[in-house]
Amino acid sequence: MSLRPGGLDDEFETVSAPSAASSKNANDPALWVDEHGDVLYRYALARVRKPDVAQDLVQETLLAAMRARDRFAGQSSVRSWLCGILKHKLCDYYRKLGRETSFTDLEFLADECSEKFVPEGFWVHMTGPKEWRPEPDEVMHREDFWQTMKDCLSKLPERVATVFMMREMDDVESKEICAILAISENNLWVMLHRARMGLRECLALNWFENPAVHR
Amino acid sequence: MKGPWRDWREWREWTPNPRPADDTSAFQEHRNRLQLRIVLLITRFTPRCPEVVRLLSLGMDKPLALSTRLKLRIHYLMCSFCERYAKQLKYMRTTAHEFPDKIGEVSDAKLPADIRKRMKDALKSDL
């Protein structure tokens, strides 16, 4: 490589850039920032809500990816590989958060649940759950559904949303979440229950039962 | 249709779970007194809806005892709301799992230019 004249190096750049862009970018970490930075940032932002923390997480992800890029075997796309690293970085961040702050959030929704039920302990019939249409595999292609999902997740209290996303998006087992966040299993279940209750309610109101949404 | 078999509605001020119009559970409306007896029996031996909903969420994270699962099944016979709730929990699990792949399309957040530059510099200095 060192014997090669400088001119050839330039030529190599211009010829290969348009044609073999994807395979080349896998080896060029500087291009990751432009190609995957925004997507990683959007995901991180949905998870931690603080722009500065999200930016740091993206940077750490890219740095970690660069150091480990020899181990990237290319079975999956660069993006999903980077997303996997970001998930680990998120876990580290939560672990730190669990150590530093008390992570339980038990005040939320104490009263909001009760108005869904009559005092005898049954659903209020006008506001009870209605059937959700269409089926999940159809809803996957609906951009407005994902928009609603994103808005609803951001409306949940942050810590409640965090445990929900760890459980349902990262597939972390409940025991592991408890260990990472240093909370008891009972507290975790209460928080997950509240997250599901709140998210279900929000999705139903804003999408599934919203007459303005074309389904 | 109005008829004498519906008179129990006037005798009682409140009955558990009269059905919504699009109901699919077995005891749809409490059309006769026998069905009402069955529904009342079920409410006596199975948890009420707020508890059922709590158990359903718990069931998403750990296996429930067989007796609990049976009670839920029996509860569904008279409560399609809770049955729907259970379905919707699974619905949310399926969709939330895809969320990381979709967030890039629905969010318009962009890395600020200075942060972008900072990252590139960090990557270069580490190379």
Structure description:
The complex is a heterodimer of chains A (215) and B (127). Chain A is built from ten helices and no strands. Helices cover 65% and strands 0% of the residues of chain A. The termini of chain A are far apart. In chain A, helix 4 packs across helix 5 (78-100). Chain A is globular and about 60 Å long. With 215 residues, chain A is mainly α. Chain B has one domain (8-126). Chain B has six helices and no strands. Chain B starts with 7 loop residues before the first helix and ends with a helix. The model of chain B is unreliable at 1-14 (pLDDT under 50).
How would you summarize the topology of this molecule?
The complex is a heterodimer of chains A (215) and B (127).
Chain A: H1 6-19, H2 21-25, H3 29-48, H4 51-67, H5 78-100, H6 136-139, H7 143-155, H8 158-168, H9 174-181, H10 185-208
Helix pairs in contact in A: 3-4, 3-5, 4-5, 7-10, 8-10
Chain B: H1 8-11, H2 33-45, H3 49-59, H4 66-78, H5 80-106, H6 113-126
Helix pairs in contact in B: 2-4, 3-5, 4-5
Describe, in short, the structure shown.
The complex is a heterodimer of chains A (215) and B (127). By secondary structure, chain A is mainly alpha-helical.
* Radius of gyration from the alpha-carbon trace of chain B, in angstroms: 25 Å
Find the structural class of chain A using helix and strand composition: mainly alpha
| Helix content percent band of chain B | 55-70%
> What characterizes the major β-sheet of chain B?
none
Average residue-wise pLDDT of chain A: 79
Major sheet details of chain A: none
Percent range for helical residues of chain A? 55-70%
Oligomer: heterodimer
Task: Tally the structural domains of chain B.
Answer: 1
Q: What form of chain B results from the Cα inertia axes?
A: elongated
Order of helices and strands of chain A: HHHHHHHHHH
Please work out how many helical segments of chain B DSSP would assign.
Answer: 6
* SS elements, strand count of chain A: 0
> In percent terms, what proportion of residues of chain A is strand?
under 5%
Largest interface: A-B, 60 and 55 residues
Name the poorly predicted regions of chain A. Answer: 1-25
